[in-house]
Design goal:
- By secondary structure, the protein is an all-alpha fold.
- The chain is built from 12 helices and no strands.
- Helix 1 (about 10-35) runs antiparallel to helix 9 (about 170-190), helix 2 (about 35-55) crosses helix 9 and helix 3 (about 60-80) packs antiparallel against helix 4 (about 85-110).
- The protein is globular.
Length: about 280
């Protein structure tokens, strides 16, 4: 770890990765519980297409991609709620189309698959100093917004009818949740890749749900799991020479399987106790 942090690009990667992991785990609880996790996957693919176009136009990737993905988040949310096409089918349609467009645009202009691999699976070298500063600021905004609006996000996560009855603008806070998720996904894409960033939203919540049953318990555990998995994954990646994004996801998978085993053992112990009594 000490040797790894002696490099400036690794310091930037760890800082941004920790913040993105924390943001994605917190937002992921609401997204998974509201069955919006597919929106996160769709946004990552839309982000890939936007990054490809930004690369071709030689403009700032984050400055170009963030507005595109935020608009896509709102559209995907509307499609999920109102479209005649099934929500998951509509999201898959848009996300796969954006991914294909991104691949074609890069292959036409660059004539090589190198950039495609970096965008699909991430690259530590992609986190420049300016990107790191921008990412820290936006991550702080996401975290602060989540903390300040925690009671309202909790309400719209579990019962939108009650939220509307309590004079909360449920649709507005649902849209805000999608926008915050879009910002988080864009921040982490260049380091973890568009194909893997959605795992940071889904895995922590599912893992925490293996051992906790309350919203607060799942939220706190999800944040701890996400940060721990990131640190273990990036350290393993540096030591073993494996891709960063894939290493982090594999650590998340291991944690999920371990906690699932803990749950099975605990449920078995409870059943044996009940039978004994």
């Amino acid at each position: 770890m000490t040797e790894m942090l002696s490099y400036s690009f690794m310091q930037r990667a760890v800082l941004v990765g920790l913040l993105v992991s924390l943001c994605s785990s917190l937002l992921g609880v609401s997204l998974v519980l509201r069955r919006f996790s597919m929106i996160g996957d769709g946004l990552s693919h839309v982000g890939f297409g936007a990054l490809a176009i930004a690369s071709v136009l030689s403009v700032s990737p984050l400055a170009f991609t963030i507005p595109v993905v935020v608009v896509a988040a709102v559209l995907l949310l509307k499609i999920n709620d109102r479209s005649r096409i099934a929500g998951d089918s509509a999201i898959a349609l848009i996300s796969s189309s954006a991914l294909a467009i991104g691949v074609i645009v890069i292959s036409w202009v660059k004539g090589t698959n190198t950039d495609i691999n970096n965008y699909l699976f991430g690259s530590l070298l992609a986190v420049s100093k300016s990107d790191a500063v921008f990412s820290v600021i936006l991550s702080a905004v996401v975290l602060l917004t989540y903390i300040l609006l925690y009671p309202r996000l909790y309400a719209v996560t579990f019962d939108t009818v009650f939220a509307r009855a309590a004079s909360l603008k449920a649709d507005r806070y649902t849209t805000l949740l999608a926008v915050l998720s879009a910002l988080t996904i864009v921040l982490g894409m260049r380091m973890l890749g568009s194909l893997l960033i959605s795992a940071l939203i889904i895995f922590p919540c599912l893992s925490a749900g293996r051992v906790f049953s309350t919203y607060r318990g799942v939220t706190v555990a999800s944040a701890v799991i996400s940060v721990t998995a990131f640190l273990v994954g990036i350290t393993a990646s540096y030591g073993l020479g494996t891709p960063v994004g894939a290493s982090i996801v594999v650590v998340h998978l291991a944690i999920f399987l371990l906690l699932s085993l803990v749950r099975l053992v605990r449920e078995g112990a409870v059943r044996r106790k009940l039978l004994k009594d």
